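Support reply, case 0932

Customer input (verbatim):
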Amino acid sequence: MQLGLEQFLAGYDSFQVVGTADNGYSAIALTLDLKPDLVVMDLGLPQLDGIAATQQIKQKQPEVSVVVLTSHTADDQVVAALASGADAYCVKEGTSLEQLEVAIHCACTGAAYLAPQIARRVIRRLQCDETRVPAINLSKREREVLELVVEGKSNPESRG
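Our regenerated output:
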């Protein structure tokens, strides 16, 4: 996967791969040393997982964008990754290269990106039932916009 990702990114003039890491500690060290604009992070890293590595990177270099690209889809892992500071969350299975490009662009421009299947899970987690108080109160319009994002609509398409 790593080689394929490097080859994909090398195909774009706007991307330059400056380093690769095989564990969470190396990811932190390389990020601090190389000061990239963006880190593509897997959650299933050995020694120190991607959630902890993301959290430490964001604490030490908050300006670095982090795009999670992982096979992990459990709700607690998604929430933990987002809480650690991830700017985008993509799932290896089902994310096209074009979607990954959008996620990277979003993260680099200060926007957030969630793979549609992840966004749906986040929405379900935020929706409340009669027995639970919602963690975040969304307005009707905010909920509509979030649902449009889950459906993969672009910003111009969501204004209609």
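We compared this against your earlier run and they match. Two observations from our side: The mean pLDDT is 83. The first strand starts at residue 38 and ends at 41. Please reopen the case if you see a mismatch on your end.
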